[in-house]
Amino acid sequence: MEPIQSLPGTEDILPKAQFVGQDLKVADIHTWQRVEATARDILGRAAYREIRTPTFEATSLFERGIGEATDVVGKEMYSFKDKGDRGCTLRPEGTAGVVRAYIQNSLYAQGGVQRLWYTGPMFRYERPQKGRQRQFHQVGVEVLGSADPRADVEVIALATDLLQALGLTNLTFYLNSVGDKGDRARYREALVDYLTPYAADLDADSRDRLSRNPLRILDSKDDKTQAITQAAPSILDYLGPDSKRHFDQVLAQLSALGIVFELNPRLVRGLDYYTHTAFEIQSSDLGAQATVCGGGRYDGLVDALGGPVTPAVGWAIGLERLTLLLEALQPPVAMAPDIYIVSRGELAEANALQLAQKLRHQGLAVELDLSGSAFGKQFKRADRSGAAACLIVGDDEASHGTVQVKWLVSGEQISCSQASLLSDVDGFLQQIHNARLKVAM
Length: 441
Ligand code: ATP
Ligand code: MG
Known about the structure:
Elements: E1 13-14, E2 27-28, H1 29-45, E3 49-50, E4 56-58, H2 59-65, H3 71-75, E5 78-81, E6 87-90, H4 95-104, E7 114-123, E8 135-144, H5 149-165, E9 171-177, H6 181-195, H7 204-212, H8 223-229, H9 241-256, E10 262-263, E11 275-283, E12 291-297, H10 301-304, E13 312-318, H11 319-329, E14 339-344, H12 346-361, E15 366-368, H13 375-385, E16 389-394, H14 395-400, E17 402-407, E18 413-417, H15 418-423, H16 425-440
Parallel strand pairs: 1-2, 3-7, 9-10, 14-15, 14-16
Antiparallel strand pairs: 4-6, 5-6, 7-8, 8-13, 9-11, 11-12, 12-13, 16-17, 17-18
Helix pairs in contact: 1-5, 5-9
Adenosine-5'-triphosphate (ATP) binds next to strand 8, strand 12, strand 13 and helix 11.
């Protein structure tokens, strides 16, 4: 029978380093776990609390929350009718669901600022390529309830802290302000005035956007369109006094934190509820899919989704792109148990199973060989496991309540009673630690 393959644009994440000698073309779980643990640590220390929302929601949430004129909603959504004839969509991003949960659970009723973060899979029907998948993952943060420019700066600083803590380099942080609704209406007019004479030379998508969503033309990937927009008016010249004050404060505080940025007035989001700060972090090591993190302020979204007017700011980091960068920097390492237990014989095998459990209960990482093969073969696997020590149980040891402890690096082997081993697991752990230190030196 033909084995069934995964769908295009989806990927397995495996404990890759565990498969020694196999050049697996998949992502490594340890890299992912490191990213998740670092995110949890850094965001937790800034008082962000994790939120988990459903992976599918009413289609109308994304139509309203992301906007029908966007590629995400217009072309990329995984939408379906369920058996109850409800319009459902696999979430293409995290913000809409978080804001829905914020409104539905009246999180605003507590007053003050809600700092939330999330991680999980997102779904977009796109052409799969390196760094672009149909099921991909994000870590994101949302701060709801603060219009203060310090909130913008805080989330930006957390994104840069996270990427830095993971050891990433060659990143550029692009920053812009898209002003408020009024600023953008005036800018939109100026942009359309500027672009209309060139309409015939724009790519087809951009020509289409000229009337529907002209700001989006600024991030067209088409060479000819880019050449035309080079000399387009800058949104920064259209900011009103309030927007300008907000942006100046963001710039000043970022500089005070030593965060280096480049202004990019072409970085815009075409939707009405995006306001003020917009930013992206790009890596020069990723090729075409360069953007690792995208974010900004969205003071109009909570209101647009039926909640009370609530200023908000957030970002999302694409984890496939991030882990690609990390694996290139640092090849994945296999997880090694503290000890590997080999056994042979009916009595020995039952005894080894119990010994493994008792040692695990006391905090050791224990791998038990289940093969039942000759000791020689089991020893080879013990070596490959990376354990510091191998415990050997034969029927003889089992009947006397003893065990052979073989230190895998030195080859030194001693016999001891299982009871004494179990009564001083701390001492045993110390010996394991020392054996590991010797290998590292
Ligand atoms: P792009 O310009 O790359 O399509 P986007 O503007 O659609 O990005 P956002 O909606 O801002 O992306 O999502 C934030 C981040 O999520 C992106 O910067 C990227 O790292 C990641 N991301 C978005 N779409 C995908 C995808 N299909 N596969 C992998 N990562 C993705
Ligand atoms: Mg996209």
